[in-house]
């Protein structure tokens, strides 16, 4: 077997091993790090004969000696299904907010790796110039529904099945700032539960950098969605008149001012720009990449350059 392919397989399973998550053949093909394959059929159980560092059980690949994570994945499926259903109901209600263009489930729930007492991470994309107004209305709505996770409640009964909106993007700038393996995997795993005006497809197209990390996922999923974006155009809402736009701009400015004032005493490692809000106080990205590097080192492999800026 090609040495580079063998290393790509080990690296891909090593990354998923951080989350105690074995991969089925299709997932291993799509998430294969930096190595394009002509067909998913090339990923088969026979690989274990050529790559001694991996094993295969009950339709799942994993690193040698990690058989216990196979049953863990099975156990987590029911929690994932339950939390996805909750997220879908929340999205249906938040869809009444006209400036929310996309809602996607991210994190462990999106990956099919949810813990029973964990929350549900959500990503929002809003209409251009309506990021802060959309977030304010979303926050009020989820608070009234009693479904929003509060700061400090990272796990346990207070976080269980609550939604955690941790990223908001303005549709005028959909390119994410970090171009590394962690971000590429998060994008590939996310599950859109509301998608207006082909926003999900536009989001993927704006993040074409990820094809360097996940070429098979890109080829398998994005080509199809790019074609859809080219040939299928939904009717969009009529733009606001000058007077309506001025009124909405006033409320957008007010919503931004109110929320920034509220956040001022609580800021930690959040990212806040004109078109992006990222609420990751624990900075999971850096922690994951650090663990990934350590795991590869233990396996005698050199990680692909991961930007941590």
Automatic annotation (TrEMBL):
InterPro entries: NT_sf (IPR043519), Polymerase_NTP_transf_dom (IPR002934). It comes from the Bacteria. GO terms for molecular function: nucleotidyltransferase activity. Residues 86-129 form the Polymerase nucleotidyl transferase domain. This is Polymerase nucleotidyl transferase domain-containing protein. It comes from candidate division CPR3 bacterium 4484_211. The lineage of its organism: Bacteria, Bacteria division CPR3.
């Amino acid at each position: 077997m090609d040495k580079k392919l063998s290393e790509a397989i080990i690296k891909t399973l090593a990354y998923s091993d951080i989350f105690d998550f074995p991969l089925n053949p299709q997932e291993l093909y799509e998430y294969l790090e930096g190595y394009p394959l002509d067909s998913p059929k090339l990923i088969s159980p026979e690989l274990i004969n050529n790559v001694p560092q991996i094993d295969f059980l009950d339709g799942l690949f994993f690193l040698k000696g990690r058989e216990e994570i196979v049953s863990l994945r099975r156990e987590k499926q029911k929690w994932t299904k339950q939390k996805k259903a909750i997220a879908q109901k929340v999205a249906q209600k938040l869809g009444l907010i006209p400036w929310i263009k996309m809602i996607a489930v991210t994190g462990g729930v999106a990956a099919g790796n949810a813990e029973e007492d964990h929350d549900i991470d959500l990503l929002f994309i809003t209409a251009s110039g309506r990021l802060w107004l959309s977030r304010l209305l979303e926050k009020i709505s989820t608070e009234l529904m009693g479904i929003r996770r509060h700061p400090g409640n990272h796990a346990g009964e207070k976080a269980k099945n609550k939604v955690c909106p941790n990223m908001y993007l303005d549709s005028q700038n959909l390119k994410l700032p970090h171009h590394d393996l962690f971000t590429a995997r998060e994008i590939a795993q996310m599950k859109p539960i509301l998608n207006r005006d082909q926003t999900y497809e536009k989001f993927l197209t704006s993040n074409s950098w990820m094809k360097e990390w996940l070429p098979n996922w890109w080829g398998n999923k994005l080509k199809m969605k790019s074609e859809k974006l080219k040939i299928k155009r939904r009717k969009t809402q009529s733009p606001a008149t000058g007077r309506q736009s001025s009124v909405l701009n006033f409320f957008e400015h007010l919503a931004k001012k109110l929320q920034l004032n509220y956040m001022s005493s609580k800021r930690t490692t959040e990212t806040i720009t004109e078109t992006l809000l990222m609420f990751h106080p624990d900075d999971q990205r850096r922690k994951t990449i650090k663990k990934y590097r350590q795991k590869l080192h233990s396996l005698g492999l050199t990680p692909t350059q991961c930007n941590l800026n």
